[in-house]
């Protein structure tokens, strides 16, 4: 694993050296976003930051109390530095410790002779940025921008393997739930049970808070589970995902409770299914991201449900659940091979409920068989 | 509940009007830290921000996709505003949506005639701060500083009740674990089981990642559970806490596995227990925070274990697990009544293991019986 991280850091250095940084060239780089630090070092160390120093050496600066090196990773050429406990009663928690490690890293960069330090302005707070300026006044602070996030978009096969395992775990957890009695149980109870099953099957945890929505709640995009109980005739929509080795996947399915779905339920389900399939089939290297969104959107719009659709119909996944690319009308850019994305259109009819169908897929060229579906739970409309 | 929030917001307004804001007076306030938004509105709405407008009206601006009002709270005088989906492919997740709601709130403040807007510079990112300036160029952005965090230090009885329930849940979860067979099970497995039991007993979730440490790992402050199995003769240290209505408590206990502890284990346990008791007994309104820390520290230092101690021996708890005050050598300020804090000294001997004992208590005057212990699981050295 460590070679992978060395090479990821080398790519980031090359990019900065080539002055492609957002805000001019920089001879040192400070990475503070936790997912980015993990991507570049393999370490999941809360509050730690990574310094790519002017001398060509990389240093992981740990937050106070975290201590250097957790020993779980083989040594690579990454130096490790623990930060002493601060003398001041700084706020605890992520923000406070982040700041301390970042300040220590800025001092280190200054002592190492750096003139310009690129920082992640989309992650550093205003207060922390000011603390860096105060601690290392000779350093010019530039903006790294989303350079690491962009580097993370295309995944290597090891990352895709982790996502594949995450998807397997997710399918298993969902499959077991479908075999159990659902009527009479609350959304909240079902969501907890799904999260337990994810862990039983080897997940580190849930990739995001599990959503279970019944009856009139079904199909609501950001629904948080309530104490509403599953009833006969309900639509039931669930959205969950496992986190495995840091990688997060997402599945969403909608079912009907009882013997047979009503006509309007079948009609709505078939419509969302058609929209989701259209977007899945549009996934191909070179396709504009907004084209994928449009493929789903036009199916729903033609049926009069365009306004019921959310702002996007999918997004990248990886170390975070919402990564680039974004599949939305305003999205810029094209898909690449080896980019894992969700495809997740849905329609919600106020007062009646609705349907969501979410899959995680990896973009692959047609020559390799087209998009690789990671979440393989059936998309038939099951009556449970 | 809503009256409580109205009055909390009125106090914040008064404070800002009295020019006690960190960076000059401001006629509008933007609160973006999630715990602060929750404290002032009762709403736990990811990415939402609160605007105290220049017209005396308060508005909760929801993140895109969240929609206004979750309906779980009675109406108070809080306006609710949903933000439209952004046209640009902004990063998803907390950061992105936060930014959008904050930008909408800044525009609203500007349209309402505000001249200076106080923002939380310790929470807003540099990029977001710049977006606010661009969106509302006539506004002067001032720094609110940790005004809301300071307001949150002293808790009302409703908040303390929530903490009391969180502590009860935590004691129950820990008590059940102690009745089960432990030898042969992994740290990771035990931690998962504790987290499940927290939820079984009514917690919304864990207050922080549960730590279970065995043998040579026992007593390590930030230990993350590994696949090491519990063995006869081990020290076993656990640290866990429930989240209930947003409020988070913390307990830590250390046990010995097997029939009888060894002499060095008893000696070390008694020492940490004495240090922890000294700090608990020092909790009183008016006492300097650093005095509480010193009470624990001097017991350990006298026994030659001063260097094994971490940077602090306790901290406030509430909507976040690490709040002010901090009980450390550099801490400034005195304790007030109705401030819940942890007292959590520990000693770790490399290669052998160690002891941690953490309690959550509420500072109360002697006339009211002194500090109120919320986490009541026994602190005898149990052999399990």
TrEMBL record, chains A, B:
One of its GO terms (molecular function) is aminopeptidase activity. Residues 162-364 form the Peptidase M24 domain. SUPFAM superfamilies: Creatinase/aminopeptidase, Creatinase/prolidase N-terminal domain. Residues 8-154 form the Creatinase N-terminal domain. Keywords: Aminopeptidase, Hydrolase, Protease. Residues 209-228 are annotated as: Disordered. It comes from the Bacteria. Signal peptide: none annotated. It holds the Pfam family Creatinase_N. PANTHER family: AMINOPEPTIDASE, CYTOPLASMIC PEPTIDASE PEPQ-RELATED. This is Aminopeptidase P family protein. The lineage of its organism: Bacteria, Bacillati, Actinomycetota, Actinomycetes, Kitasatosporales.
